[in-house]
TrEMBL record, chain A:
Species this protein is from: Methylobacterium oryzae
Name recorded for this polypeptide: DNA-binding response regulator
DNA-binding residue intervals: 125-223
GO molecular function: DNA binding
Keyword Nucleotide-binding: no
Domain Response regulatory: 2-116
Record bears the keyword DNA-binding: yes
Length: 226, 455
């Protein structure tokens, strides 16, 4: 993937670039908002990672101008400390996701993947299929190998998020945000609890578990297991 | 130390002197008017006196002729006490008897123009034989009385002036004395002694009330300072523990680790420990940020009902996994003006606290109700509760009950919850659920967009 990284702190930027390149991405970098805006206008990127606090042209303003120019590159905001309205402000400026520093590298990569895989606007899916699992967004019914799996609403949302990001690492934080709309770290591991219930129901017919737990990070739904 | 210069500069002195001056001017004016009125009255009386005297002499003449008149006049000349003077002038214009100096007044009753200010009062009468008798009063008595009254008023004026000056000095000295007490205390506080308080007189006058108010202000500042100091100490203490653990772990690794696997495990531990430290920092910063926020521009209408359902839903499974029961009684359509993320964190913190601090088998209840203009949100449990004396303290940063000190958590959850409640115009209160603890938050109710303007 081609990624634009805009960050004013040089060591952070260097770490960001090397980590993304190691993960196989092509990275363009900018140390300030003006350069970032220029690069974003000149070339197309799959995802832009933008620090919120930038000297000169602020991260929020950069994205606002970008959107005004019609550039639709998905934007992931980085911020030092979750301020009270940072997330809402970021989304209202045209950002797509939001990550508080410090973050685990896996978290950053997972979010970049999720943003790049986001379906284009206008395309409405009603049924998602992964291997022998079928999820109907309209009737909210899930079947595995044709057998109905009876899921609670949150379990359904968990599965939906995993299926939309099939083959990719999905972090606990991503799930907390998308399923429960919790933008902080609760002490209790509610994702784990609900995930184990989802897995028990999904695998009740004795089939192999398509969900892999990645210790310390999150989960991957594999397509090649039926 | 108070100096004379301070005294002279004192506003009290200036006000009192000004007042004294005004008082003296009015005393002077009253005196002047009194002297005028008294003089006028006495002069009228003297005029009546000479008129009566002249009439009496005419009566003497009519009754006993010239001889009786002259006898009467001679008798009056002999009286040393009188200031009345007489002259009898014959028809030919010669002075027959009496004071020749009065001769000019017989022609012109007003007397010679040159000495008009010393004009004596006169009354002249023509007698049957063509002679003229003239009675004059030189106003000595009137002038004497005028002098006495004037002197009395001048004395009063001087006394008032002295009294005023004395009062001014005393009053301003007293004012300075009272103010000095306040100034001394203020200076001690400036110098760093926050325990100083202004001495009260108990008189409930304006100075005493000011002292009481200032003392209350000092109490508040002192309380905040103590709190701040406590928080700094707590932060230092609570960060020291994980930092020491981190250091010990790293040191042990550098001595003992031999394989790449050893190092990986050690680094993972170090990252976990660092995350814990960062969590404490984030929580502290967030509390500070929330407490410093007054602007609520990011607030939107939030459905507390929906939020409560989400929280109940998220925690029902973890609760039952740990042997506890989560029950919810949620009224629909409870809206508040709020920051959704902070409110979610507030109630998650409360539910996690309840689950963590109750023994297995307990029931934790989520309650949401709308009553009047308020949304009543509460999390209650039937666990061990919090003693009344501890309820205020557990809201403090890092404060933990003795029995839960060894458990997980950093002692910031309830502080954060209280700060969030306050930011939303609500108040977090702890009460006895009999048994157990009930933590409730009351919010002002808000209508969702588009529903408040109908009609």
């Amino acid at each position: 993937m081609k990624i634009l990284a805009v960050e004013d702190d040089a060591p952070t930027l260097a770490l960001l670039v090397s980590s993304l390149e190691e993960a196989g991405h092509v990275v363009e970098q900018a140390g300030d908002g003006q350069t970032g805006l220029r690069l974003a206008r000149e070339t197309a990127h799959d995802v832009a990672v933008v620090d919120r606090m930038l000297p000169g042209l602020d991260g929020l303003e950069l994205v606002r101008q970008l959107r005004a120019l019609g550039v639709q590159t998905p934007v992931l905001f980085l911020t030092t400390m979750g301020g009270i309205s940072d997330r809402v402000d970021g989304l209202e400026a045209g950002g797509d996701d939001y990550l508080v520093k410090p973050f685990a590298l896996a978290e950053l990569l997972a979010r970049i993947n999720a943003l790049a895989r986001r379906p284009p606007l206008g395309r409405v899916e009603t049924i998602i299929r992964v291997a022998n699992v079928e999820l109907d967004l309209v009737t909210r019914r899930v079947t595995r190998a044709g057998h109905v799996v009876d899921l609670q609403p949150r379990e359904f949302s968990l599965l939906e998020f995993l299926m939309r990001n099939v083959g990719q690492l999905v972090t606990r934080r991503q799930l907390l945000e998308s399923v429960w709309d919790f933008h902080f770290d609760p002490r209790t591991n509610i994702v784990e609890t609900h995930m184990s219930r989802l897995r028990a129901k999904l695998n009740s017919d004795g089939g192999p578990d398509p969900i892999e737990t990645v210790r310390g990070s999150g989960y991957i739904l594999h397509a090649d297991i039926s | 130390m108070r100096t004379y210069r301070d005294l002279l500069r004192s506003a009290g002195l200036r006000f009192t002197l000004l007042y004294t001056l005004a008082f003296m001017v009015s005393v002077g004016a009253i005196g002047w008017l009194t002297v005028l009125a008294v003089t006028d009255a006495l002069e009228r009386q003297a005029q009546r006196g000479v008129d009566n005297e002249a009439r009496a002499l005419v009566d003497e003449f009519n009754a006993g002729g010239r001889q009786d008149l002259e006898a009467a006049l001679t008798g009056r000349f002999a009286n040393p006490l009188t200031h009345t003077r007489y002259v009898l002038i014959g028809a030919d214009g010669h002075v027959l008897l009496g004071d020749a100096a009065l001769l000019p007044y017989t022609r012109d009753p007003a007397g010679p123009a040159a000495s008009r200010s010393d004009v004596p009062l006169t009354a002249a009468r023509k007698l049957g034989d063509g002679s003229i008798v003239l009675v004059a009063d030189d106003l000595t008595d009137v002038r004497d009385v005028e002098a006495v009254v004037t002197r009395a008023f001048l004395t009063a004026l001087a006394a008032a002036g002295l009294l005023g000056l004395g009062t001014a000095l005393l009053l301003s000295s007293a004012l300075l004395h009272r103010l000095d007490a306040i100034t001394r205390t203020a200076e001690a506080v400036v110098a760093g002694d926050l325990t100083q308080r202004i001495a009260r007189t108990g008189s409930q006058d304006e100075f005493d009330r000011l002292a009481a108010t200032l003392n209350r202000m000092l109490d508040r500042i002192g309380g905040l300072m103590v709190n701040l100091r406590q928080v700094s100490t707590d932060i230092a203490h609570d960060l020291r523990t994980p930092l020491s653990r981190l250091r010990q772990g790293l040191e042990a690794t550098s001595h003992r680790a031999t394989t790449a696997g050893d190092y990986r495990v050690a680094v993972e531990h170090a990252v976990e420990e660092t995350d814990r430290i960062l969590d404490i920092f984030s929580a502290l910063l967030r509390i500070a940020q929330i407490e410093a926020t007054t602007l609520r521009k990011s607030f939107r209408p939030v459905s507390l009902s929906e939020l409560f359902h989400t929280v109940a839903d998220a925690y029902a499974a973890p609760a039952s996994d740990s042997g506890r029961t989560l029950v919810a009684r949620i009224v629909e359509d409870a809206w508040v003006q709020a920051d959704h993320d902070l409110l979610a964190q507030l109630f998650v913190n409360l539910v996690e606290n309840a689950l963590q601090h109750t023994p297995p088998g307990s029931t934790v209840g989520l309650e949401l109700d709308v009553r009047g203009g308020s949304v009543l949100a509460a999390v209650r449990d039937d666990g061990l509760g919090v003693p009344a004396s501890e309820r205020e303290k557990v809201l403090r940063r890092f404060y933990r009950l003795e029995r839960s000190r060894s458990g997980p958590g950093n002692g910031l959850g309830l502080s954060l919850a209280a700060a969030v409640a306050e930011l939303h115009g609500g108040r977090l209160t702890l009460s006895d659920a009999q048994p157990g603890l009930r933590v409730s938050v009351t919010f002002p109710v808000a209508l969702p967009i588009g529903e408040g303007v109908a009609g």
